[in-house]
Amino acid sequence: MRADFKDIVAGLLLLAAALFFGLIGFSQLPLGTSFRMGPGYFPVLLSGLLGVMGLAIAGRAIGAGAAVSAGQIPWRGIVLTSGATIGFALLVPRYGLVPALVVAILLSAFASRRMTPALALALTAGLTAFCILLFRYGLGVPIPLLGAP
Amino acid sequence: MELTSHLLLGLQVAISPTNLLFCFVGALLGTLVGVLPGIGPAATVALLLPITFTMSPETSLIMLAGIYYGAQYGGSTTAILINLPGEASSAVTAIDGYQMARQGRAGAALGIAAIGSFIAGSFATLVIAWFAEPLTTVALKFGPAEYFSLILLGLVASTALAHGSVLKALAMIVLGMLLGLVGTDVNSGQLRYTFGVGELADGLGIVAIAVGVFGIAEIFRNLENEQEREVGVKTVSGLMPSAADLKASAAPIARGTAIGTILGVLPGGGALLASFASYAVEKKLAKDPSRFGKGAIEGVAGPESANNAGAQTSFIPMLTLGLPANAVMALMVGAMTIQGIAPGPSVITDKPELFWGLIASMWLGNLMLVLLNLPLIGIWVRLLSVPYYILFPGIIAFSAIGVYSVASNVFDLYTLAAFGLIGYLLVKLGFELTPLLLGFVLGPMMETYLRRAMVLSRGDPSYLVTEPLSAALLAATASLLCLLLLPSVTRKRSEVFVEED
């Protein structure tokens, strides 16, 4: 059977989101009436619409030509870059801006295969200094450099 | 004359030293991100939103606007010099601009692009000033039913210019709207979809979402195949186009300005459509169409004027109705809301200094771009050869600090990481992200207007079609929707946008 698998996944993903928002809205939020709409009315309405669209996208894909391959997925970059943001989030409230920045920049620097250790260290030092000058002293962003506020 | 006095008021605001400085900073930053790969105006505006909270509303909007039109300039520079449009709307410029550069006429191409953009930008700014007041007078008469229908029309119309499938773009709008509803329901005070996370009571942060989908997800896409950017042209000389060039470009600039001014008002990327339309028109009108694609200066002058005019007039729906036409405008609506200004028709009467100051600053900003960017072109050329892997640790660091500084909220950083991944997944599945952000901003507005309309009609949905103006808007929406989903139109659309990829 020929099918555009990318669109089938896309449609099913939308359907899942619709079910998520719809079921929670339906079971936990008062719907109200159209005259006095409750907090659940509009989300449930939208979820229904999204579900129909998801089904239509997936349904249309069956029998359609195969999609172009997804191409390369830069797993190393995704893991390291997301890790950089999460590392920043974990460090900044407890240890302050400097350690958080150093970790985030070092991790994201190695997201590219072309990065060399020496360049990464230089980049980390330079960018950390630049960010501190710009945000802490230039713009007065109230994040402590070291330690918790 | 009233218009003159308004523009004078605007100029007074715009030439205050602070505003002038930040107009310059915005335009310069915009050009920078237009030139640099991997970070666009939407991500930049989102990143700088937190910084602007401490400024006055005028200064903040003047700077954010500068980033937007500055990026249009920067985008055309890369299109001409390395055949790599920095912004989508410069894609057509690359066709003939890059050929001109290869023939050693990069200077003339850059010069005419700047001159055309300035003329177009100045004219479009005047048009905004002209139409703003009559439009807001009409908009002030709108009731909730009309607003609901108008937003619906705008959202559907924005998908007409989406690159991929219309259905998928519509689905992104709905998903964005649902995400926009997360948080406290303003009517009942009830928490929706917060799952006991206290930080979600105020909703998902627009800065975190926008930086995630336009900044982080874009990094992932750039990491897919890393390659050197070839800068074919190392030095640029002779920025002033010759008299013959100017003569050949005059009419295309005028036509491009007209096309851009009109199409820019359309939601969803009028500037992009305008540049394509202008290129098509110039090719059709040319005595010898075969020159196009081989370095015809008309093919640079027309589209560049069109996309700049379009970029300016896309402010009209945002300024007069409070309805954003693209991702940057959606973020500007966010900026106004955070500054405590309700975007909409009342801005022009309640905050005339903000409204006219912003308009006057656009003209000044365009002037600065011409005066400063042409001499700075050497710096931009050198920046083009900065390898990408050096840039994006900086983007990550700026994103993290920017998002965290909104409210010193760690949860926003997790939102940022999550939306980077979600954005990349959606792009991989063939979805577009601009409709998601438009839905996110407009979803809660639509709910409010629908609720008010239903209270007025005592719960009768037919109220939306018995009010004549609302009915007309809904009829337009319905016919547009039918048109967009017609198979023949779907084919045509894919042809129009095929050149872009």
Q: Can you tell me about this structure?
A:
The complex is a heterodimer of chains A (149) and B (501). Chain A has helices spanning 5-28, 41-61, 75-95, 97-109, 117-138. Chain A has 149 residues and is mainly α. Chain A has two domains: 5-61; 75-138, no CATH class. The longest helix of chain A is centred in the first third of the chain and has 24 residues, at 5-28. Chain A is flat and about 55 Å long. The N and C termini of chain A lie far apart (61 Å). Chain B has 501 residues and is mainly α. Chain B has one domain (2-497). Chain B has helices spanning 2-14, 17-35, 41-52, 57-82, 91-102, 106-140, 144-160, 166-180, 206-224, 243-263, 270-285, 298-313, 315-321, 327-338, 347-350, 352-373, 377-384, 388-407, 410-428, 434-456, 463-466, 468-485, 487-498; strands at residues 183-184, 191-192. A two-stranded antiparallel sheet of chain B has the order 1-2. Chain B is globular, with a radius of gyration of 22 Å. Chains A and B meet through α1, α2, α3, α4 and α5 of A and α8, α9, α18, α19 and α20 of B.
Strand content of chain B: under 5%
* Biggest pleated sheet of chain B: 2 strands, antiparallel
Q: Structural class of the secondary elements of chain A?
A: mainly alpha
> What is the radius of gyration of chain B computed over CA atoms, rounded to a whole number of angstroms?
22 Å
What portion of the residues of chain A fall into strands of 2 or more residues? under 5%
Q: What is the terminal separation of chain A in angstroms?
A: 61 Å
Largest sheet of chain A: none
> How many domains of chain B, as an integer?
1
